[in-house]
């Protein structure tokens, strides 16, 4: 039997070496050599389904792969775009303790599907304890405590599950490579094997991956290129809310947001997120404004809190939670230049409450309103929500899905939406007063 051939390949120039070295002799780059399989033993060919490499016209291609398998979890379905695509490889990333294993175990326990949950992180007993805590009974869920990629795949070949979960890709180990589990070569090789399995057997495979301190998925970027879907599970340790987003999705949008709450008995989807996020709002306080963001198809109301105070040190501090600090600096510059507010010598702290992180530019207007309210120490009248992007000239720009945002605000009992002038928007959409604005300075004039 032919043996598997391995080599250390420079990731920068592609030169291969029989042994590891700190520096590539060809391109002089440091630490770029990674162990790779060059020639596979023929046994691996078994993963390639017969007839796969035929040339076909597009209408000859089987459409059954388009079918989606609902995961049994509505939030996950939303983020995936309707469920698992058979034969797809997904990667779920997140910081330790955020709830990746819990989420995937819940999905594996989902009754009606035969699932294999392979864990290299926990023993079968620990997985059982977690399952009991979640309180699901999943007769179709099979567990395997194993790190060896080939053993996991052998078990999957026997069991023929409808879903394979691997927790985590960093513990998956291919004994053919000498490098340690979690190294770039091991991660890539294991992921490639799971990919071959997924494609050959038309089974969705979900890999769990850890995130490094820098916030990127541990292991190589190349993993993100290999998989079809990259999901990111995020949240603040001190808040219960967890957000699930797709960073990459070959079969759907990357705009959708899934919201969960970590409860005593597993992760619960948040049914009415806006009401939940606004639950503890401090009405009548200065520096608080409600913004309407839209994550994917779903509008969400969030509270933005700002605190503007005189800087104690020479250089004023600007600090954000849940919002981009550079964007805050830009908005402060606009308020200074276009509205005449002197904020250059002020400390500004900004917080999107509930532990959510928002990138939607439509939150700009609420951020500006919160800052102005704190600066003037005057609360924003109750029942007002904001939605609009602020440009460098102090102009307000129309944003996408304004109608849906206004509707959401109306449903939550808001009487006024202050927004960027939107073509075609009636004066009282959905029973809400829509205050159309052109410039940020109008907010200043009208608010106080
Ligand atoms: P876990 O899924 O182990 O995180 P990860 O796999 O991302 O490292 O989540 C662990 C945390 O979740 C832990 O701090 C305990 C908490 N938890 C609950 O609050 N409720 C539950 O029902 C479960 C299973 C976990
Ligand atoms: Mg885990």
Question: Any overview of this molecule?
Answer:
It is a single chain. The protein is an alpha/beta fold and 448 residues long. It has 3 domains: 1-41; 68-269, Rossmann fold, CATH 3.40.50.300; 276-447, Ribosomal Protein S5, domain 2, CATH 3.30.230. 25% of the residues lie in helices and 27% in strands. It contains 11 helices and 21 strands. It has helices spanning 74-80, 100-109, 124-134, 149-159, 184-201, 222-226, 273-278, 325-339, 364-376, 402-411, 440-447, and strands spanning 5-10, 16-17, 33-39, 89-94, 115-119, 141-145, 163-167, 205-210, 229-235, 241-249, 257-263, 266-269, 288-295, 298-310, 318-321, 346-352, 384-387, 389-390, 396-397, 416-420, 433-437. Strands 6-5-7-8-4-9-10-11-12 form a 9-stranded mixed sheet, sandwiched between helices. β9 (229-235) and β10 form a beta hairpin. α2 crosses α3 (124-134). The longest helix has 18 residues, at 184-201. The N and C termini lie far apart (82 Å). The model has no long low-confidence stretch (mean pLDDT 86). Bound molecules: thymidine-5'-diphosphate and magnesium ion. Residues 100-101, 121, 167 line the site of magnesium ion (MG).
Bound molecules: thymidine-5'-diphosphate, magnesium ion
* Proportion of residues in β-strands: 25-35%
Q: Averaging pLDDT over every residue, what do you get?
A: 86
Oligomer: single chain
Assign the CATH topology of the largest domain. Answer: Rossmann fold
**N- to C-terminal distance:** 82 Å
Poorly predicted regions are: none
Task: Profile the largest sheet.
Answer: 9 strands, mixed
Structural class comes to alpha/beta
């Amino acid at each position: 039997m032919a043996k598997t051939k391995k080599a250390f390949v420079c990731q920068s120039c592609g030169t291969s070496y029989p042994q590891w070295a700190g520096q590539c002799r060809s391109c002089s780059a440091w630490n770029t050599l990674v162990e790779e399989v060059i020639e596979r033993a023929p046994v691996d060919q078994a993963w390639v389904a017969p007839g796969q490499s035929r040339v076909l016209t597009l209408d000859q291609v089987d459409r059954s792969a388009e079918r989606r398998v609902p995961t049994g979890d509505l939030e996950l379905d939303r983020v995936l775009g309707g469920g698992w695509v058979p034969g797809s490889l997904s990667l779920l990333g997140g910081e330790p303790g955020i709830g990746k294993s819990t989420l995937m175990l819940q999905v594996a326990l989902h009754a009606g599907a035969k699932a294999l949950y392979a864990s290299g992180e926990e023993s079968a007993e620990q997985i059982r304890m977690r399952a009991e805590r979640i309180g699901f009974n999943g007769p179709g869920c099979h567990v395997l405590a194993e790190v060896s990629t080939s053993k996991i795949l052998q078990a999957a070949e026997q069991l023929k599950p409808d879903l394979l979960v691997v927790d985590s890709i960093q513990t998956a180990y291919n004994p053919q490579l000498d490098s340690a589990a979690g190294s770039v070569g091991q991660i890539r090789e294991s992921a490639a094997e799971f990919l071959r399995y997924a494609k050959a057997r038309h089974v969705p495979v979900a890999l769990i991956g850890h995130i490094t301190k820098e916030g990127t998925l541990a292991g190589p970027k190349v993993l993100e290129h290999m998989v079809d879907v990259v999901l990111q599970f995020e949240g603040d340790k001190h808040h219960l809310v967890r957000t699930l987003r797709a960073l990459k999705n070959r079969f759907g949008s990357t705009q959708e947001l899934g919201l969960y709450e970590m409860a005593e008995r597993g992760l619960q989807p948040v049914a009415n997120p806006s009401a939940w996020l606004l639950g503890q709002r401090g009405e009548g306080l200065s520096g608080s404004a409600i913004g309407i963001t839209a994550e994917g198809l779903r509008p969400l109301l969030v509270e933005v809190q700002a605190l503007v105070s005189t800087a104690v040190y020479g250089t004023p501090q600007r600090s954000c939670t849940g919002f981009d600090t550079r964007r805050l600096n830009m908005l402060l510059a606009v308020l200074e230049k276009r509205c005449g507010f002197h904020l250059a010598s002020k400390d500004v702290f900004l917080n999107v409450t509930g532990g959510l992180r928002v990138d939607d530019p439509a939150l700009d207007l609420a951020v500006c309103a919160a800052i102005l309210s704190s600066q003037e120490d005057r609360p924003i009248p109750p029942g007002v929500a904001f939605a609009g992007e602020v440009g460098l000239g102090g102009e307000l720009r129309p944003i996408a899905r304004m109608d849906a945002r206004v509707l959401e605000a109306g449903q939550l009992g808001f009487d006024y939406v202050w927004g960027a002038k939107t073509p075609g928007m009636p004066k009282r959409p959905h029973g809400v007063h829509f205050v159309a604005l052109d410039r940020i300075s109008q907010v200043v004039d009208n608010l106080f």
